[in-house]
Task: inverse folding
């Protein structure tokens, strides 16, 4: 049983930050009701190719992007712009423990579904609002996406090739790290509020902004600036505070060398046949190596070009000097350690075939991480949840379906 068994989440989020948080809640055993617009659904359902293939090997219209962050949820297609749809959501919220949403500031309040509307119906509700800039401030009403936040937060200013080198300039991180970081903060905020509720008996409102989350996640770079007054620079793959800690070319490819202390540096120098570097006062300590980075790095680069990557990885690993290959995604999934940990797995899908997934990285000693269901089809569970939770009859469901308050069951539409 998952640690959140018995917790119910009303998920009005879409794209990535909110769905990432609610997928984790589902993995931990919570029941998650994913509310989607009839006929459209989560935007990421349509962000293909690539598309999931059905049992016959044909493309479905389920995009891989959507499949990455929606497993374990139950999809309800409800149009809350209609009064009857709003009533359904209020009734579901009265039965939920958590609500997660990422509409622009004030959107749900205009439909009578804001915190001040739902808290009187369910004083134990934990209500988490995820927006680009938060509920107040000069940018509060603005829309925002991951790339914008990477730019505004300063992350892009410290990511990319250093100034003065070919290709220099700010770079976006290759994955939507601001969305994912916000999703993880949302998860921890919800868990904290649920724990506090055990003492107070009351839920509370959570105001979470992508910009705030990404600014906080700059961590040591923030403090480097606040303490010194000097703007952090781009170092490519290098570390601003540790040397040598970056990628290097080898005789046949690349490796990542991550020397974290002086002992490791001395061992690296021994393996590389350059003991004199470890004895040189310019490089003996990490502080000295950071100060003399421009002298040391070209020398290390020259040394590492003497052998192929596999040889370096083997010899350095034997000496417990941290290093690793630079894998592409396919190579990553083929890594023996990744295979041993079972990070890739499959779930059966309603359209036939199987949907690949990546395991939650959390491993509890007693509690289970649950992978109960694949990412749902749009509206797959509308009838079942409304019948079981709200007691709606088939006649009542039909009356709601006729004007489009709820969507058609996708299972009835499959060939």
Result:
């Amino acid at each position: 049983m998952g640690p959140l068994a018995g917790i119910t989440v009303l998920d009005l989020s879409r794209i990535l930050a909110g769905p990432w948080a609610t997928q984790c809640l589902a993995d931990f055993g919570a029941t998650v009701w994913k509310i989607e617009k009839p006929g459209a659904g989560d935007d990421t359902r349509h962000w293909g190719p690539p598309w999931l293939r059905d049992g016959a090997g044909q493309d479905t219209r389920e995009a891989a992007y959507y499949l990455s962050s929606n497993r374990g949820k139950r999809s309800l297609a409800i149009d809350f712009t209609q009064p009857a749809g709003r009533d359904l959501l209020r009734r579901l919220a009265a039965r939920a423990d958590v609500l997660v949403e990422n509409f622009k500031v004030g959107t749900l309040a205009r439909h009578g579904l804001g915190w001040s509307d739902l808290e009187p119906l369910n004083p134990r509700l934990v209500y988490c609002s995820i927006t680009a800039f938060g509920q107040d401030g000069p940018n509060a009403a603005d829309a925002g996406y991951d790339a914008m936040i990477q730019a505004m937060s300063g992350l892009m200013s410290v990511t990319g090739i250093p100034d003065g080198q070919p290709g220099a300039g700010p770079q976006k991180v290759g994955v939507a790290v601001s969305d994912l970081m916000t999703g993880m903060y949302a998860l921890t905020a919800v868990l904290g509020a649920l724990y506090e509720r055990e003492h107070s008996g009351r839920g509370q409102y959570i105001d979470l902004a992508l910009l705030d989350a990404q600014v906080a996640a700059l961590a040591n770079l923030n403090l480097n600036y606040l303490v010194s007054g000097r703007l952090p620079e781009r170092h490519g793959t290098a570390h601003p505070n540790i040397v040598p800690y970056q990628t290097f070319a080898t005789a046949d490819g690349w490796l990542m060398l991550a020397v974290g202390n002086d002992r490791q540096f001395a061992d690296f120098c021994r393996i590389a046949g350059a003991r004199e570097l470890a004895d040189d006062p310019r490089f003996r300590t990490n502080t000295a190596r950071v100060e003399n980075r421009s002298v040391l790095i070209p020398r290390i680069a020259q040394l590492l070009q003497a052998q192929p990557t596999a040889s370096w990885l083997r010899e350095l690993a034997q000496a417990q000097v941290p290093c690793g290959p630079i894998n592409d995604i396919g190579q990553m999934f083929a890594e023996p350690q990744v295979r041993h940990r079972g990070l890739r797995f499959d779930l059966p899908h309603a359209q036939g075939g199987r949907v690949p997934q990546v395991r939650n990285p959390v491993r509890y000693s007693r509690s289970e991480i649950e992978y109960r269901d694949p990412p749902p089809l749009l509206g797959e569970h509308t009838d079942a949840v409304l019948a079981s939770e709200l007691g709606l009859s088939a006649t009542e469901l039909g009356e709601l379906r006729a004007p489009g308050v709820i969507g058609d069951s996708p299972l009835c539409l499959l060939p």
User: Anything to note?
Assistant: The radius of gyration is 25 Å. The chain has 19 helices and 13 strands.
